[in-house]
Amino acid sequence: MRKILHLEKTIYGQADLVAPDAPQIALAGRSNVGKSSLLNRLAGRKQLAKTSSTPGKTQSINLYRIEPGDVYLVDLPGYGYARRSKEERAKWAELIERYLSGTAWLRAVAVLLDCRLTPQASDLDMVAWLRASDIPVIGVLTKIDKCKKREQQSQQNRWAGLLGGEKPVLFSSVTGAGYEDLWRRIDIRLGIGEDQPAAASEGTPEIETPASGNPES
Ligand SMILES: Nc1nc2c(ncn2[C@@H]2O[C@H](COP(=O)(O)OP(=O)(O)OP(=O)(O)O)[C@@H](O)[C@H]2O)c(=O)[nH]1
Ligand SMILES: [Mg+2]
């Protein structure tokens, strides 16, 4: 069965920081790494989450319910965007940290890493913090359409060491590479399990533009 993602809740700040009491997986990573694009690819919809070539596009915590079921994928604002003011960066970092540390139903965090970059300090900090907090990490190397096979493999091996052994998923929102592998890892963490491979059994869907426009706007 094909999964459908619906934007159910948007959190703009501490005042409305209430996550649902349901299993959820968050997408974390530096600004521009491709979190919202990856979510759109997983949903099979081009414009569910807003994306931009300019870093700092996602400015809220967006909770997408995965149907069928009562489980969530959560798109986070990016970290490490140097052009934001110090105050703004601190505000986002605090909101993200509060969400990650205060959500008992958080089953894992998918940490997205650009396949073209060597491990960045902010990524290493995030992975170290998650591991110290006992939050499972799903590593994802993004934009692999921009990396040669050899580079993909060396980055995968390097990150496997930093992530505690498991090789990150090789993903491209452009080609759909890694779609099944990532859904499988998400399903396992959400407890949807291997009994209901859902979208994975039907392969990568063509991305559709929703007729009803962008529900986020
Ligand atoms: N070639 C290629 N470009 C990608 C891929 N994924 C995302 N992009 C591009 O990278 C840019 C940033 O993508 P977003 O999905 O908005 O990134 P984000 O991590 O959500 O960024 P913030 O919301 O600012 O934190 C956009 O121009 C995307 O088109 C990919 O797999 N391959
Ligand atoms: Mg985004």
Comma- or semicolon-separated keywords:
single chain; 217 residues; alpha/beta; Rossmann fold; 7-stranded mixed sheet; 5 helices; 29% helix; 20% strand; disordered C terminus; binds guanosine-5'-triphosphate; binds magnesium ion
The CATH architecture comes to: 3-Layer(aba) Sandwich
Number of E strands = 7
What value does the average pLDDT take? 88
Our measurement of the CA-to-CA distance between the termini, rounded to an integer number of angstroms, reads: 28 Å
Largest sheet: 7 strands, mixed
What strand order characterises the main sheet? 1-3-4-2-5-6-7
The CATH homologous superfamily is termed P-loop containing nucleotide triphosphate hydrolases
CATH class, named Alpha Beta
What is the fold's blueprint, element by element?
Layout: E1 4-11, E2 24-29, H1 35-43, E3 61-67, E4 71-75, H2 86-102, E5 106-114, H3 121-132, E6 137-142, H4 149-162, E7 169-170, H5 179-190
Parallel strand pairs: 2-4, 2-5, 5-6, 6-7
Antiparallel strand pairs: 1-3, 3-4
Magnesium ion binds at residues 35-36, 57-58, 75.
